[in-house]
Amino acid sequence: xxxxxxxxxxxxxxxxxxxxxxxxxxxxxYVLPSRGRKLAAILITGAVIAVSxxxxxxxTNNRILxxxxxxxxxxxxxxxxxxxxxxxxxxxxxxxxxxNFLFSACIMVLFSGVLYKLMFxxxxxxxxxxxxxxxxxxxxxxxxxxxxxxxxxxxxxxILQGKMFASFNxxxxxxxxxxxxxxxxxxxxxxxxxKYLDVISLGKDEAINxxxxxxxxxxxxLVVISIYVSISTALVGPITFFGLLVANVGHQLFRxxxxxxxxxxxxxxxxxxLVGGQFLVERVFGFTTTVSVIINFAxxxxxxxxxxxxxxxx
Length: 314
Fold this sequence. Notes:
314 residues, mainly alpha, globular
């Protein structure tokens, strides 16, 4: 395990150095701040998506589920679509990145809080009922977004289209500072529950038999997951299949239930994939595509592979 973590760490550092120093040509004053912001956004996004997906899969005991099933990605697109539809792209307040980020993140966290409050009012509520409601809500948000998209002006739609795909190219320093503060506080809270993850991944009955206050711990882990997903989505945009991709590769690589290895290993895989993907987008494809398009394509193919694999196991 330690050898694999060391190799992944060295690979991540090598890719980061390559990303920051390739073809600088002496323009350090411009290159370092510009690439530094992208790198910071990649590190934050990669880490929170990896952690939230691994924890979510441990709670649900299902490796083809990601937190996106809760409908947060669809809610983010509904907020952006409604903003352009109702206020127009020329509205400076809504289009301000800081205001948009804070508004979107707050709405998504609020939605998660209300959803959990309603679903867990009664003790012993099945978590799969929560996932079903999240899936239905996500579909409803997606349908509402599609309805407004066909009504808005084509020029407005082009602006909206830029928000449909995750991008690390236009993240501002202010958003990075806000995200870092919120995620640091959330991570400090999350650390209190890390010790329960190995037992929770065994299943609800086994966790209760081993003395874990299952409902209490799971509710708080779901809140942490929602904050992680909301911040990362509001920061760079939705990356649907990325969590599925890195979490399952992490499981196959480490083949362990110990989250002390699984979480750092998945974070390193996530950083390698995003830094490598961004390097390819800039240096090979010349910004003709975004890293989220490549990841969603690879993740979609991998998702089909997982479905076929699970089907054979039946």
